[in-house]
Amino acid sequence: xxxxxxxxxxxxxxxxxxxxxxxxxxxxxxxxxxxxxxxxxxxxxxxxxxxxxxxxxxxxxxxxxxxxxxxxxxxxxxxxxxxxxxxxxxxxxxxxxxxxxxxxxxxxxxxxxxxxxxxxxxxxxxxxxxxxxxxxxxxxxxxxxxxxxxxxxxxxxxxxx
Length: 161
Known about the structure:
Elements: H1 11-20, E1 23-27, H2 36-47, E2 51-55, E3 61-62, E4 65-68, E5 80-83, H3 90-100, E6 104-107, H4 114-122, E7 126-128, H5 133-140
Parallel strand pairs: 1-2, 1-5, 2-4, 5-6, 6-7
Antiparallel strand pairs: 3-4
Domain CoA-binding: 17-111
InterPro entries: CoA-bd, NAD(P)-bd_dom_sf
Protein name: CoA-binding protein
């Protein structure tokens, strides 16, 4: 792996992105509860103000919500496109994100493609890579303790208040 040279948005900039976002499309959403995209979707639907849309050509419904085969099939233009796809799929998702007019391309933890980031920025997108929308939202809104992070306690039981 080559050295990372692209610098993404700072924490205050990521907070600004999340505050400006009203709708999120999850590309690569899964109906399998053990998949990260499903866990993130569950959190976003229950603990965030966002309208959440799912994109996956092989699934019809996730968590009681319809799933769309592509970004251009969505009933809205999403503000933020969150991507749970393999590295080789990222350039195609970038092109689809630009084509629908979204404002932000957000690549999930582990996803990093500096060419995609630079091309996205050149097209006017805000780009975030190797970050989780769920973790970032919880971090900025005091919810990390709800997700089992940052409590100082290692336990599967919820603390009594």
